[in-house]
């Protein structure tokens, strides 16, 4: 049976990359320390309790997201502890090493709590890179992490991964059960994987346990992200955040001139960072 390598909490980016290149993903134990998990959960509890259910406006999207799954975005405003995770040096280093060959900068693709409720069905197998089906890039378009905010078992909907699927020649190949692993994570542990790896949220077959996890995806700076951070985190809120958080949320000019590319993300024909010079001045 396939498996994913577990690395200790003090692993380096190089350690992560070595395993990720071979298997497409890995698990880091203790990625989030217990105090951070507790603080984040305390911020999320009332938000999830008030959640009104999946309603994206698209029936196909709602089916994919899950009718028994509660999801939250805009976390930099709703759950400020998330900013500590978003700006983590190793997360940033892992993303830049994998996405860097096709983009000199990266931005947040999604910062999303995914709370899979009892009775939820499994997702279809997919690659996160599939969000941009015509990109045809020579490297992954993004990386993702799934960090456990509670102890997660396979029967709660633990993320299913097909290790090595980033090396498969046939893009239509669907993994067999013998080619997959359901990730069981203790609270604070995190699954890291490339955007070209097949995975899926698992079915929650328990009677009363929710699989609460945090998905933090980082993508190439020239892509339109899954999450619209400009509306979820408006300028006034972004002004209170660290520079790296602002840049990852998209409040920065994309300059690819160093690799022969172009310029994206102007604000009034200038760098969006000027917005904060005014706000802070």
Explain the overall architecture.
- The chain is of the alpha+beta class and 281 residues long.
- It has a single domain (6-227), classed as q2cbj1_9rhob like domain (Jelly Rolls), CATH 2.60.120.
- Helices cover 27% and strands 19% of the residues.
- It has ten helices and twelve strands.
- A seven-stranded mixed sheet has the order 1-2-8-5-10-4-3. The protein has a three-stranded antiparallel sheet with strand order 7-6-9, with no helix packed on it. A two-stranded antiparallel ribbon has the order 11-12.
- Helix 1 (13-23) crosses helix 6.
- It is globular and about 55 Å long.
- The N and C termini lie far apart (59 Å).
- The relative contact order is 0.19.
The string of secondary-structure elements, in order, is EHEHHEHHHEEEEEEEHHHEEH
At the fold tier of CATH, the topology name is Jelly Rolls
Tell me about the largest β-sheet: 7 strands, mixed
**Overall tally of domains:** 1
* CATH homologous superfamily designation: q2cbj1_9rhob like domain
Helical percentage: 25-40%
CATH class: Mainly Beta
Q: Please, what is the average pLDDT?
A: 96
Could you say which overall geometry the principal axes of the C-alpha atoms support?
A: globular
Euclidean distance between termini CA atoms: 59 Å
Helix vs. strand class: alpha+beta
Strand order of the largest sheet: 1-2-8-5-10-4-3
Give me the Rg, rounded.
Answer: 18 Å
Total beta strands:
12
Count of discrete alpha- or pi-helical segments spanning 4 or more residues: 10
């Amino acid at each position: 049976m396939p498996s994913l390598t577990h690395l200790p909490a003090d692993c380096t980016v190089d350690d992560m990359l070595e395993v990720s290149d071979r298997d497409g993903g890995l698990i880091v134990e203790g990625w989030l320390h217990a105090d951070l998990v507790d603080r984040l959960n305390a911020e999320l509890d009332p938000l999830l309790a008030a959640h009104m259910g999946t309603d994206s406006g698209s029936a196909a999207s709602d089916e994919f997201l899950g009718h028994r799954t509660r999801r939250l975005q805009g976390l930099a405003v709703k759950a400020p502890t998330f900013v500590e995770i978003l700006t983590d040096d190793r997360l940033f280093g892992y993303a830049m090493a994998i996405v860097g060959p096709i983009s000199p900068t990266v931005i947040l693709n999604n910062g999303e709590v995914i709370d899979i409720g009892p009775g939820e069905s499994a997702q279809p197998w997919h690659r996160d890179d599939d969000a941009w089906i015509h990109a045809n890039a020579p490297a992954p378009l993004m990386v993702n992490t799934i960090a456990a905010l509670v102890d997660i078992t396979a029967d709660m909907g633990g993320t299913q991964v097909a290790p090595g699927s980033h090396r498969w020649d046939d893009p239509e190949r669907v993994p067999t059960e013998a080619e997959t692993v359901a990730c069981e994570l203790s609270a604070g542990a995190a699954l890291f994987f490339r955007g070209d790896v097949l995975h899926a949220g698992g079915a929650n077959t328990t009677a009363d346990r929710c699989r609460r996890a945090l998905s933090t995806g980082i993508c190439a700076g020239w892509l339109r992200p899954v999450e619209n951070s400009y509306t979820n985190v408006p300028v006034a809120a972004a002004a209170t955040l660290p520079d790296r958080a602002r840049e990852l949320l998209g409040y920065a000019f994309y300059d690819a001139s160093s690799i022969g590319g172009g310029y994206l993300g102007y604000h009034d024909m200038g760098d969006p960072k000027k917005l904060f010079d005014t706000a802070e001045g």
